[in-house]
UniProtKB/TrEMBL annotation:
<dbReference type="GO" id="GO:0005819">
    <property type="term" value="C:spindle"/>
</dbReference>
<keyword id="KW-0812">Transmembrane</keyword>
<keyword id="KW-0472">Membrane</keyword>
<keyword id="KW-0498">Mitosis</keyword>
<keyword id="KW-1133">Transmembrane helix</keyword>
<keyword id="KW-0206">Cytoskeleton</keyword>
<keyword id="KW-0132">Cell division</keyword>
<feature type="transmembrane region" description="Helical">
    <location>
        <begin position="12"/>
        <end position="32"/>
    </location>
</feature>
<dbReference type="GO" id="GO:0005813">
    <property type="term" value="C:centrosome"/>
</dbReference>
<comment type="subunit">
    <text>Interacts with AURKA, AURKB, BIRC5 and INCENP. May be a component of the CPC at least composed of BIRC5/survivin, CDCA8/borealin, INCENP and AURKB/Aurora-B.</text>
</comment>
<dbReference type="GO" id="GO:0005739">
    <property type="term" value="C:mitochondrion"/>
</dbReference>
<dbReference type="GO" id="GO:0030496">
    <property type="term" value="C:midbody"/>
</dbReference>
<protein>
    <recommendedName>
        <fullName>Protein JTB</fullName>
    </recommendedName>
</protein>
<keyword id="KW-0732">Signal</keyword>
<dbReference type="InterPro" id="IPR008657">
    <property type="entry name" value="JTB"/>
</dbReference>
<keyword id="KW-0131">Cell cycle</keyword>
<dbReference type="GO" id="GO:0000281">
    <property type="term" value="P:mitotic cytokinesis"/>
</dbReference>
Amino acid sequence: MESDCRISARTLTICVIFYGWISSRLLGAAVLSKDNISVAVVAESTPCWEVEEFVVSAECALCSDFQSKAWPECTPTGYVERINCTKSHRDEYKSCRSASMEDRLFWKFEGTMLGVAVLFALLVVSRQRALDRLASEKVRKQIESI
């Protein structure tokens, strides 16, 4: 008896591509971990508040029109706070979330959820009425046929 244990060309190609991809990912990770220059560049480009302790020197405030266009920190939330990093003694700006903005977003979410709940409640009531009508019609036809 002879068994057919051959691997198809398609399966072999897929395996070679997969193992090649895994090998390149592992090799790339090994090379990056030994490259200290790229780590230094990342450390210089990151804000000081991500790598060291800081003190908030100006509370969270709404960005002006000019700040919203000029400062990338204003883009995510529209609010910014000034911080002072303790080690480097640098003043930087950081995006923040204000209490009034959070309050407004909360009530907007609550209103949306209430509207969705009312919509689905109306759909349930109308569907139940339609099913009740169908059941009544079915019972009426059964009584008439007797």
